[in-house]
Amino acid sequence: STDSIVNYPYKVLETMKYAMRVGGKDIEMHLEKNSKLLTNDYSETYYTEDGKPVTSTPQDVDHCYYHGTIVNDSESTVSMSTCDGLRGYFRTAAQRYLIEPLSGGDDGDHAVLKYEDQSSKPVVCGVTNTSWNADYPPITSKSRSRASGPSLLQQQKYVELVLVADNREVRTYRQIESHLTMQLICLQVYKPLNTFIALVGLEVWSDNDKISVTAPAGATLDAFTKWRNSDLANTKRHDNAHLISGIDFEGSTVGLAFIGTLCSDHSAGIVQDHNPRAIAVGATLAHEMGHNLGMNHDDSSACACSGNSCIMAGALSYDIPKSFSSCSSVNYDQFLNNRNPECLLDKPDYRNVESTPVCGNGFLEIGEQCDCGSLEECTNPCCNATSCTLTKDSECAAGACCDNCKVRAIV
């Protein structure tokens, strides 16, 4: 039910404050821009109807993701996007809330809704093997002296992530980019572990699936991992890849991932888009990535965390978890020390939003309508290579909804 309505002025700032009345109380949010979400080489890949990949590097998508807290509420957490109006998730000590625009556009009224479970269907993670598989040898054999400085758990670590949306997912959501990036705000839960998740790429299977996506989750994970190594690894540098699928996996399974495989060729997982609220799917993504980072399911009452449920609980709760348990932290520490996954220590080149656009470099940047490369390279009839503007009568030049230079009608 709608709890309150807030009028929202659209601004993009490094820090923001919002005051609103929720549940009969005045609250004030303090937000800061998430500068560690997109890397400088972040790219989006779509496919034309004949299967040709089209990759662009949009420059205006990193301005609008924020995280923060509510003043005088130590239990609070806030994750928001200002990309298309104000939307996101926040929790107070007493209640969880969603905030959404009442209508499209950046200005106008927004509804604050209590987050309530709309489904009683239980959902679980499909991982049952709770030990590292002997088939995956240690990633490096180099020993590391404990006297050589701060432990790996204490050091800053970075996971360079590629998200892949399958064809069912694309057909379900018109604004697939914003839907997927909304899921990422849940990955703030890694911050207390000194781990930052940086999105380096978004791959959208807009024409058809590149693998056989089937209801048995294990078969789909194997197929996705094989594709990651044969195709994705050759076109996009990354540490980890996850498939977000519109299929309904067998049984109550909504996710599956390999355990302790980050920085290896099995650094992958799959997630079913099991809830129309992107934030709930994001919690599943955080869980499956936890497996890649060596975390097992919390199977003991000794696995304590703040809140009613922990991220690595085997049964995924609709009470969106906000922290890892003490057991998960121990698992992660063991993985870091036993496997020495050095790719986590590579700091990405985070995007500088003030970089100067260059027409002809093949990347769609601020002020450009399109960029098809140099005059010699350009084969796109919708784009003028010299000016980086659309050709006469063209409505678009690339993307899932662009067909023969026209925006495809929604049927």
Automatic annotation (TrEMBL):
Name which cysteines form disulfide bonds. C263-C343, C303-C327, C305-C310
Per its UniProt record, what CDD domains does this chain match?
A: ZnMc_adamalysin_II_like (cd04269)
GO CC term (a single one): plasma membrane
- Which PROSITE patterns does this one have? ADAM_MEPRO (PS50215), DISINTEGRIN_2 (PS50214)
Keywords assigned by UniProt, alphabetized: Disulfide bond, Metal-binding, Zinc
Q: Ranges for the Disintegrin domain? A: 356-411
Going by the entry's taxonomy, the superkingdom of the source organism is recorded as: Eukaryota
Question: Catalytic positions?
Answer: E288
Q: Give the matching SMART domains.
A: DISIN
- GO MF annotations in UniProt: metal ion binding; metalloendopeptidase activity
Give GO terms for biological process. Answer: proteolysis
What are the Peptidase M12B domain coordinates in residue numbering? 157-348
Binding, Zn(2+)? H287, H291, H297
Output the InterPro entries linked to this UniProt entry: Disintegrin_dom, Disintegrin_dom_sf, MetalloPept_cat_dom_sf, Peptidase_M12B, Peptidase_M12B_N, Reprolysin_adamalysin
What is this protein identified as? Answer: ADAM metallopeptidase domain 28
Q: Which organism is it from?
A: Hucho hucho (huchen)
Q: Which classification does the entry list for the species?
A: Eukaryota, Metazoa, Chordata, Craniata, Vertebrata
